[in-house]
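User: Can you predict the 3D structure for this chain?
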Amino acid sequence: MKHEDYMRIALSEAEKAYQLGEIPIGAVITKGNEIVSTAYNRRETGKNALFHAETEAIYKACEKLGGWRLWECSLYVTLEPCPMCAGAIVNARIPEVFFGAYDVKNGACSSNLHIFNMTNNFRPNYIGGILEEECSGLIKKFFIDMRNGLAH
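Assistant: Here is the predicted structure, written as structure tokens:
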């Protein structure tokens, strides 16, 4: 599968969040060509600030693979990771991160902070802008719907 294929799966996870009235962010963790875990944002429904798509996917991947080091895995996420998620990615030793939309307000890979480039730290490689239009479009649609009272 190509990066775009995995991002489409992450987008389908984001759609699940959208249907629950959550900010639509989805994530996929792969190991080789196998999907290890998928997740979506569920902070509101789970009533927990830690329930971001990335942290949920990391948790599930660690459970499935039986360890906290995900050094053979890649993460696909529809929005550039925030500082908390970027820190979790570094701590899980995920070497590759692919994201869709850039987050100029809270992005911690390249838009605002640069957690992946910190010295004396594990430094994941990352590529942003994969299916950027679709990823940012879903988030924009969510907030328009929310302002218009249409979001769940």
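Strands lie at 26-31, 34-40, 73-79, 96-101, 125-127. The mean pLDDT is 94.
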